[in-house]
Structures are given as structure tokens and as C-alpha cells.
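Q: How would the C-alpha cells look for this protein?
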Amino acid sequence: MNKQVFGLIGLGVMGRSFVLNVERNGFGVAVYNRTTETTKKYVEGVAAGKNIKPAYTLEEFVGALERPRRIMLLVKAGAPVDAIIQQLVPLLDKKDLIIDGGNSYFLDTERRARELEAKGINFLGMGVSGGEEGALWGPSLMPGGSINAYREVESIMSAVAAKAEEDGEPCVTYIGPGGSGHYVKMVHNGIEYGDMQLIAEAYDLLKRALGLSSQEFYDIFAEWNKAELSSFLIEITAKVFKKIDEETGKPLVDFILDKAGQKGTGKWMSENA
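A: Here is the predicted structure in C-alpha cell form.
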């Protein structure tokens, strides 16, 4: 029976997309999710007919992978990561590899690396940037941990990562030991949140002081995106101003609540600054 090259646990939005990316690039994948119905729906839906093997227990999942096993976690940061690692460890062999691809705190990543390496199991903490579309078509990847562990998945990560427009180089590089990969992702997110706050404040000032229309906002942000402010955030903000609420026929931005949630990485960066 053929074994799969790569395994992924966690079929949320990011996990579902990342698996399709890995498989599309020629690597067989085994998948597992805590709820079996999610796994079944996935493999019978968008993953049907692809080299993606479902597993409905962790024992079945681990048994479906070639050795040394390469297992990526895309689950909620914090206790869920520790819980799944605790369940996996008795099933693994020395030299197997666990990759945490969530937004984990870098000190938690360093602790997990120490604990697993003491058992002979390799561990990488890897930042993944790009959201659902990035996970599917090419994310930016920030792996940190043992360099030898990274070599085990370098070809896979180089294949699935986004490619730079200038030279076609994959948007992934080994960051360094310990929790350095998640540290870089934390800083990346913190900078992004700062940019988002600046954009929100620019909108607020122009809206309240000048009373600009959504069309005028679109024109301004689209123009900004042609010069030194050109960026993904400015680009998508301009697009937001063009969206119309289907029920009222008015600009959707006028109905967006003045509040935002956060997962903690921005706070962590401020605390580490």
C-alpha cells in the first residue's frame, strides 16, 4: 500500500486550501480532522478524485504516512496545539516531524520544540501568510526550528509557496532556530495591523472632515495605489469602496461596524517591542 508524503491535521479554511495546494504540486496528502463529518465532506467534495487520503483516527492518519513522517498542524493556537501534539507523540517514531502552521506565540513554539526534541521528534514553527487564497495558490512561509528538520520539507514548501514576480523565487526561507519563524510572523502581523489602523484613521478623517462619498474614496485610494503607497492593503481597501449592499443599494462600507477582532499577534508584538 502506497504511503502519503505529507500529512495535515485541521481542515478549517486554511487547512482545506493548503492541502489542495500541496496535492496540486505533486505530493500525496493524508488528512485528519477532529470531527469526522468535516473530513468526509471534504474528501467527497473539493478533494474528490485527488491524491488526498482521509483518516478518521490519528492511528489511521499516522499509519498512512511514509517515514520519516511529515505532519503539519493548522489548528487554533494555544491549548489545541498542545492537545494534538500530546495525542500524536505516542504514535510517532524518532526523526518524525511536526510542523505548527498556526499563529502560535513564539515562546510556546520554543517550549514545544524543546519537549519534542527531547523525545527525538523534530519540530518546526512556521508562519503562514496569505489567508485562504494564499494557502490555496501560494502563501508566504516562515519556517523556524531545526535546519535539518526544515530540509525534510524544503522541497514541498518551495513548491507550494508563492513565487516572486521579479525572479520566480519561492516566498519561503529558513528563518532560524527555535521560535524564530513564529516570531517573524508575529512582527509581520503587527506591522500589518499598524498599517490597517493608519488606513482606518485616514478614512475616518476624510469622511468626517470632508464628507467624501464612497466613489471619491475609491478614486483617492486607487490613485494612492499607483505610487509609493502601492500595496495589497491599499488595493483591497479601494475595492471595498466599490462594493454595494444588495438590500439597500447603498455602499457596503457604510454598514460595517466600527469594531474589529484580533487573535493576539499584534498584542504580542507590542509586548515584545
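Strands lie at 6-9, 29-32, 52-54, 70-73, 97-100, 122-129, 140-145.

The chain has two domains: 6-177, 185-272.

Upvote if useful.
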